[in-house]
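Researcher: Structure for this, please.
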Amino acid sequence: MSNKNSYKHTAALKLKDGHTFEGFLFGYHKSVAGEVVFNTGMVGYPETLTDPSYKGQILVMTYPLVGNYGIPPMNESDDLPTGETSLPINFESEQIQITGLIVSEQSDSFSHWNAIQNLSDWLKKFKVPGLFGIDTRQLTKILREHGTMLGKIEIGKEKVEYYDPDVDNLISKVTVQKVVEYGSGKKRIMLVDCGCKKSIMSNLLERKVKVVRVPYDHDFEKEDYDGVVISNGPGNPVVYKQLVASTKTLLKKQVPVLGICMGHQILSLAAGAKTYKLKYGHRSQNQPVKEVDSNKCYVTSQNHSFAVDTKTLPRGWQPWFENLNDYSNEGVQHEKLPFRSVQFHPEAAPGPVDTSFIFDEFLKDVK
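Model: Predicted structure, token format:
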């Protein structure tokens, strides 16, 4: 546990509706602003904090203790634990992506075979502030009742303006800057990087395909591919009009397409459907989804603010999965053509891998 006496600096989380929460600073000391969202997962904070879909957001962890198993090494320059010769896969990108972190209690001490540093030191490395000693239960109840809202962490006299990530082009900040190829295999998959989690890449490579990772605004006509995966990513899908237009071209060519999370929303917009913002989103590792027209239910990992409006799906498209908590759309597929997408994460990380078969279903469509 953290010793509050050793943390002399305090700061305030200020919500735009006027609520204020005082807490102790850890990590990097700077004022930041973003959208305040909550995650109800119990484990997996290294994966969660490095998920590019959190770009622009101040993350509230509802589980009361965070940091107790420390942080493993991120690259070869880090000192590996004694006796270890390879890096663990605990990160979904090369850096922390969240804007700020809010927890009830953070642990200075840690215990895990591959940990090399504590949570606070890791946050400092990437200049991300954290607050602990916050009543995260009360904060989450406010966010559930009123919906996610803009907020800011302010330190002393260091003021910042509220910032709305939904109007920003966040994908441009997390996508690759050039085309990169990985693996080998007969099937050539173009991965459109909207802020792709590493686990999506590893799931594709495990299936012995060649992956061509391209920026989200890349000219798809320049590449040779047998199928396309549109990845997860941050922000409001309607901001990315050019990506939607490029996806429409893929549909016209009847290229096999799999959309994941943001990719699901982009594919649905390209098909002619509409999206809307959920009241407080889905961010956890235990979201139940049901396959439409079957009795099969899966436990899924999710991280998104927006959803596809099932009622707006055009002729030829049908819902594939639905959420059993709020009955929002969790996937779509075309009735005849090789287009499909899911709102949840079949690669999980963190979370259950019940739905990893979706990668296999997609690759069956790829000739």
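Researcher: Any notable elements?
Model: The mean pLDDT is 95. The chain has two domains: 4-167, 171-365.
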